[in-house]
Automatic annotation (TrEMBL):
It comes from Enterovibrio gelatinilyticus. Pfam families: Chor_lyase. It is found in: Cytoplasm. Removes the pyruvyl group from chorismate, with concomitant aromatization of the ring, to provide 4-hydroxybenzoate (4HB) for the ubiquinone pathway. This is Probable chorismate pyruvate-lyase. Belongs to the UbiC family. Substrate binds at M40, R82, L120, E165.
Length: 178
């Protein structure tokens, strides 16, 4: 998985995030995925028999590592970084990188640091007050393939997290509806 991590996580780190053209994107099949405001986990689960999570990395970074945009969205503080791959029926569909400010990992949210193979969306969207905002999109080229990505801020109990998601080549976002 180290090549996988190098290829896809590094692509997320290098992404040029832009605000989407909502009116234009809402009319496309991909737009439904990129603009999803609820749980991506649930959306992916609906497309397979088994959705699994493999943790690629879990580590802390100092606030100096964050970009100016990340600081604007999360605050100026150290974060826990969680990097995972979600696979549907053993096919990698999504590479995700989440920045979780240390202030988010308090009280009821302490368990987010210990999710392991539990999808973040499953944990976050079990809360009645969970929400998603600040959705941005990117077009990336990985290993010669044009891929779509999105970044959004999740809130749980008024505590933020920043999730970057890269839709891998065999993800349902690219499949013909039928």
């Amino acid at each position: 998985m180290s090549n996988f991590k190098r290829l896809y996580v590094e692509a997320l780190l290098a992404a040029n995030w832009v605000a989407p053209d909502w009116q234009l994107l809402e009319k496309t099949k991909e737009g439904g995925w990129l603009l999803e405001r609820h749980s991506m986990t649930e959306r992916l689960k609906a497309c397979c028999r088994t959705l699994t999570v493999e943790v690629l990395g879990l580590h802390e970074v100092g606030k100096e590592v964050l970009s100016n945009n990340e600081r604007e969205l999360l605050g100026d503080q150290a974060c826990l970084v969680r990097e995972v791959v979600l696979s549907g029926d053993d096919t990698p569909w999504l590479c995700a990188r989440t920045l979780v400010p240390m202030s988010t990992l308090t009280e009821r949210e302490q368990d987010i640091a210990d999710l392991g193979a539990v999808p973040l969306g499953q944990r976050v969207f079990n809360q009645a007050n969970a929400r998603r905002d600040a959705i941005e999109v990117a077009h990336l080229v990985c290993d010669g393939q044009a891929l779509l990505a999105r970044r959004s801020r999740l809130w749980v109990n008024d505590k933020p997290m920043l999730v970057s998601e890269l839709f891998l080549p065999h993800a349902p976002i690219y499949q013909e509806e039928g």
